[in-house]
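Bumping my old thread because nobody answered last time. Still need a sequence for this structure:
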């Protein structure tokens, strides 16, 4: 088990999660309504950068200052960053976003507020692993977003990927 903190991981290399945006996000980008986007646990901003490049106004939420600094450098002025600990009770504003993106992060008590953060017609992309610590159960994402219409879902390569619309 890796006992490094996220701060130690970020300090140890230039790109903890790589430089390319999520494959699932890239594949479904053309389906997503443009406007305000929320990138939850944005890390170094690889997914935010793709969204900014494609015309989204992005609010990225992240705990680690070094990750936020790297995300700002990668995204430029199209990114507004908010430093906070997601596990300290933060919830997104209801009906504020056309798009909410969560990649490689799992906090089950956020599920309800993530779907509520979407404007009518808004989209949620959620992707996380299905093996190891802090893993999704098989088909879990199909059950936890009852307010959303499933547009795409897959489990492959030890990952679950979900796209749903409000």
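Sorry it took so long. Here it is:
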């Amino acid at each position: 088990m890796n006992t490094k903190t996220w701060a130690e991981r970020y300090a140890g290399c230039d790109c903890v999660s790589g430089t390319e945006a999520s494959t699932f996000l890239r594949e479904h980008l053309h389906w997503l309504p443009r406007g305000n986007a929320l990138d939850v646990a944005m890390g170094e901003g690889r997914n935010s950068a793709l969204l900014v490049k494609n015309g989204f106004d992005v609010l990225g939420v992240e705990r680690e200052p070094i990750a936020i600094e790297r995300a700002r450098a990668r995204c430029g002025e199209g990114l507004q960053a908010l430093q906070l600990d997601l596990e300290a009770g933060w919830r997104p504003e209801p009906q504020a976003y056309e798009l909410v993106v969560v990649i490689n992060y799992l906090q089950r008590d956020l599920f309800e507020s993530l779907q509520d953060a979407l404007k009518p017609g808004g989209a949620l992309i959620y992707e996380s692993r299905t093996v190891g610590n802090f893993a999704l159960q098989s088909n879990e994402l199909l059950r936890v977003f009852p307010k959303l219409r499933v547009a795409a879902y897959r489990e492959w390569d030890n990952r679950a990927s979900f796209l749903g619309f409000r």
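The helical segments are 6-12, 23-28, 46-53, 65-75, 111-116, 140-143. Let me know if any region looks off to you.
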